Amino acid sequence: MSREMNPKKDYIINSHERCRQYKVEQDRVYSKKIISGNELYKKFEKKKELIDTADFFMSRLYNFVKGSNFFSILTDEEGCILSIIGDETILSEAFSLKMVPGAYMDERSIGTNSMGTTLYEGKPVQVSGEEHYIKAYHRWTCSASPIRNSSGDIIGSIDLTGFSESVNLHTLGMVVAAANAIEEMLDIKRYNEELSMEKKFTETILESIDAGILAVDLDGVIKTVNHHAAELFGYSQDELKAMLVPELLDDWNKVKQAVVNRKSFVDSEVYVNLKRKKLPFNLSAYPNYDVDQKLMNIVFVFVEVRKVRKLANKIMGHQAIYTFEKIIGQDKKFIRIIDYAKKIADSRSNILIMGESGTGKELFAQAIHNYSSRHDEPFVAINCGAIPRNLIESELFGYEGGAFTGAKSSGQPGKFEIADGGTIFLDEIGEMPLDMQTRLLRVIEEGIVIRVGSNKEILVDARVIAATNKDLNEEVKKGNFRKDLYYRLNVLPIRLMPLRERKGDIPLLSQYFMERISRKLKKKSVPINEETMKVFVEYEWPGNIRELENLVELIVNTEAIPDSFFKFLPDNTMKSTSDLSRKAYHSAEDEIEEEAFEEILNLELMEKMHILKVLNRYGGNITLCAKTLGIGRNTLYRKMEYYGIKCTEAERATSYMA
What we know:
Number of domains: 5
Helix content: 40-55%
Largest sheet: 5 strands, antiparallel
Structural class: alpha+beta
CATH topology of the largest domain: Beta-Lactamase
Distance between the termini: 97 Å
CATH architecture of the largest domain: 2-Layer Sandwich
Number of helices: 28
Shape: elongated
Radius of gyration: 44 Å
């Protein structure tokens, strides 16, 4: 930056006036303030960049006047001498006046001088002979210029001092040029530092993103690779940079054309040739243009398909919520079943959970998953009996786009792919069609899934937990279930007890459901007296825990127990809970009240009861039942799954829920 050198001496007059106000003694010899030791060391550390940058230019400035009895001084913005270089003779005199590093040359400390005055005035100045305020400096001539940073703030000064007879206006010009050069060098250093920091910042961002990132030119040459890409693909970063993208990515031309034609290529599944195998990845490609909007290169962002699915699973709710701590029971045999389930939870072997409807098979499956090392991975449940035959294959194994009429153009992963890394729960496995059992067996044995309409093999690692309320051994004998699949699933069997075999847990479960349901429905808890609890214990509970839970929910909603519940018991006298706020609706004294009560029964319970009656009437024929109910077969299957209804149990279930 250029400076206008002011030849006028107004600054000398003004400086002398300031010195008188500062009460500077004219016969002073040394600076009023001189620091040394640790204090001076801290000053050097603070101004290291200025000292290092100015050193070269001070040397060049001194070389111009070398042998002419001159010395050059660098100060900070306070006037403290940081560095000094010059001829030995004149330096000896300067040192005798204690003009040494650490001495302050501001006007308060040593009166009018070029360094102190240039810092005050903020412009280049020259002070010669008697223009110095103190007499000891009258034999000097000195020229100084302030040094500023990129913001315009003064950060120091540079000075050239000699004997007064050597005064020359050109000396000030050389000092100004040196100051300008120092400022420019500081700006360049700052710019380079910012570039370096920006580069490091960009590299830090690239390395911190949990995805593989490549920057490639239009010829497929890989320019930039982050370490995540190297880890994902099994190559070193140098190995990847030595490769061309077509060697890595089969769909390179497809991706390139999409980007060149300014079409979106985001979250698409592609196959990458890893060092030892080929695996699917989720790829997004982003164009990078120059100032003229010319495509320069393409940035690839690769994400493991498993991570994408894991995120989707969290959003979609493919997670297990139940743990062993949430399983209620004190029965000794039941506790042994829980302990056994915990013991096998972390095994890679398949589990078959057997038990009647309503015994909590899925609850156990979720608890096993959450107790295993796979607890952070997806838990995917599928009811094999509730999916139509023509859809079960695509549901389990997925399909490619256009594989069949109505298929999504982008295709869709199956439940095994979604469960990759976690657990897949195959409920009602006994309902699976025989042809699907063959495909399921291959997936379990080989860990490979092939989507419908595709020939690509997809590796999956999903732990299988199956469940059934059927006797699969009998089903094998009847030819309804493959023997090899049965033995493959029945590696670690768990047989859950029906509620009638753990009657000691009924009071505990009743209280648990009462508290949970009343809290959920924001209704008051209804006390169940001792006599009623005896009735509960005597009852066989053909619907098991699910039936008990439904009954407790009915009690919370109505504060009464339905008449139908008691007609299966030997003693029909006890028909209501204690402390009820209204009469039990079985009373024959008030038929109007009974009719009104039936109208406000839980709608879900009424729907379940009606479905059970229709199923019973038609002997479990799904087609006839759906037609009578005025709904589709799939809708009926979903409702049956939701209410835990099985066709084979329809008659018995209807009898106790009617």
